[in-house]
UniProtKB/TrEMBL annotation:
Name this polypeptide is given: Outer membrane protein assembly factor BamA
UniProt-listed HAMAP family: OM_assembly_BamA
Keywords in alphabetical order: Cell outer membrane, Membrane, Repeat, Signal, Transmembrane, Transmembrane beta strand
Protein location: Cell outer membrane; Membrane
Family: Belongs to the BamA family.
Organism: Sulfurirhabdus autotrophica
Role summary: Part of the outer membrane protein assembly complex, which is involved in assembly and insertion of beta-barrel proteins into the outer membrane.
Cross-referenced InterPro entries: Bac_surfAg_D15, BamA/TamA_POTRA, D15-like, OM_assembly_BamA, POTRA
Gene3D superfamilies reported for this sequence: membrane protein fhac, membrane protein fhac: a member of the omp85/tpsb transporter family
Signal peptide: 1-20
Swiss-Prot/TrEMBL GO biological process terms: Gram-negative-bacterium-type cell outer membrane assembly; protein insertion into membrane
Limits of the POTRA domain: 24-91, 92-172, 175-263, 266-344, 347-421
Superkingdom, natural source: Bacteria
Quaternary state and interactors: Part of the Bam complex.
Amino acid sequence: MKPKLLASLIMGLFSASTWAIQPFVVKDIRVEGIQRTEAGTVFSYLPVKVGETMDDEKASAAIKALFSTGFFKDVRLEYDKDVLIVMVQERPAISKIEITGTKEFPKEQLKDGLKQVGLAESRIFDKALLDKAEQELKRQYYSRGKYAATVTTTVTPLERNRVAIDFTVNEGEIAKIHQINIVGNQAFKEKELLDLFVLTTPGWLTWYSKNDQYSKQKLSADLETLRSFYLNQGYLEFNIDSTQVSISPDKKDIYLTVNITEGEKYTVSDVKLAGDLLVPEEELKKLIKLKAGDVFSREKLTESSKLIGDRLGNDGYAFANVNAVPELDKVNHKVAFTFFLDPGRRVYVHELNITGNTKTSDEVIRREMRQLEGGWYSAEKINRSRERLNRLGYFSDVNVETPAVTGTTDQVDVNFNVTEKPTGSIMAGLGFSSTDGVVLSGSVSQSNVFGSGNYLAVQVNSSKINKVYSLSFTNPYYTPDGVSLGYDVYQRNVDATTSSVSPYTSKTLGGGMRLGIPLNELDTVNFGLSYERTKLGVLDTSPIQYINFVNEFGSTNTTLRGDVGWARDTRDSLIYPTQGTLQRVYGELGLPGGTLKYYKLNYQHQWFYPLSRDYTLMLNGEAGMGNGYGGKTLPFFKNFYAGGNTSVRGYDSGTLGPKDINGNSLGGNRRIVGNAEVFFPFPGLNKDKSVRLSAFMDAGAAYGQDEKLSFGNMRYSAGVGLSWQSPIGPLKFSLAKAFKAQENDKIQKFQFVLGTAF
């Protein structure tokens, strides 16, 4: 009997008409047309089994189930003498995928993207997925600014019902931002506003920053920066009406247009406080940065709310809500603010949790904590704890979270998550001099030995003039109160016979200990005691002052050296400070018990001030003086020197000041140094804080025993500097022009220091 096609069932899937067959009991099921698919797989999807009755409903369900697997492009049902025949036509399988013409991306990366949309080798081929795959490839290239990229797809049938897919990519050129227009600005010039943007037109460094390539994320950030700028300048009703992004027909140039409405400039008419004032109102008003008569600034408004919230947080109100409600006077363009305070419930800290430290021990971190478990929550103490962790130099990032304790209303946990960074360093210094040639120096240090927080350093200076070998160890928490204890052993050999300094030789062997006592969070007092033995050598060409000193005090001297100092550091960063001060007073004294009796006193004051978001001014002043006592004189090898990359750039190291009859530096018993430097971003890398340029002016001099202090004897220089926290370590360069140089001054225009981390 000829098999009968269940056409009624198939037509029933696509027609509203009702077709019917005579139900029958399935005695057997046969599958035909399969090549790769196992018959068991087909049986598993069939809603009818042997022994069951086949009817319209089950036939329709069977066809739908087999089509939904995606394995087949055609399914038919037939029956012959109570045998159900399932006839299928399989979709081809993907044998291989080839991508040609790609240079911008690795092929494996592109194939991973195709796999995300379902197209991969050994999978079933689907034309709909092929279209998605083409769009995915284009999307990858569009993300790199290659809007002219085209993708041509070739599908080649292979034996055993397989296909090979070839994507031929023509990448085209990267589309660059040709022009950015801001429409509607009146109060500010377009150039001033565009300087706020990260996105820019092509420049000489945009090949590195890629900021001349359009990015939706970067544009959104730039628009928010623009909005913040206007709101901080008083334009309370500022609005970005629309943005248009268009591309040229050749897909090479992108045009951005931003339409804005500036609105009117608003001033503050009044500021009031309301709500539950748990802190005296006068104290809270001092925290409000906006005063009546000021130009409105969203930045100051936000800062005021934060300061008030932090002040309430210092008393344990961790979830205090401070909401500034404006009252607009659109006629007179004034705005009044009422700060509504809702302190909420007072809470205390349940637990301090520390995560992320794989090397540094918990004890090292916990001893920096100023917020204690069981104490009232204090935003100030938590922030101070985070600052102290940052200043350790052990971590690249410190994050703090204060989640509420589940099931309570008056407890929070404080979670510190740290990201450790390499704390060891290998530093190398390199300089050039017309007389000394190449000068090399280096040191190896580890500021977090075995995660203990202890500091260990070995220094080796191998220049032909100064050879230094030293070993230093410091325990910053010798006592639980933070008193530090350190030890030093060192040998310094000086051979000044080939330098710009008056010729002599010395060999110093010494050792000592140091003690640091913190007075508070910012101030530290240091004490030190060491013993040195120095052997001096003079030559016939040495200056008479050196020869007389050796004749009077001998070629071998001992020094019982005492050190004392005070330091106050409020800088916001040790690497790239933008604000704050550093003050240091430190003295050195040759105590009775040694053959040398002298004193040296130094003072340094360094000040950082942010001129703008990107520019920072640094002013530095240093002064030093010294002399002998008890009938002794200041040893000539303890003299002050000026010149070089740590004082007055543009001059050879230590060459400024009194000189002997041969023009070599004698050094002096007094020194003055002043520096003014403006730091700013590298062009094209405004957001990259690891690279900074600077323009500087230096001044300084050293003065002899009988020489009158005079600014007329000082040397000056000006130039540019570059500092880069590079992948191989910190690099610092300077190029300086010396001013008011005398005929016998040693000029050194270019200087740099480099280092690396391990």
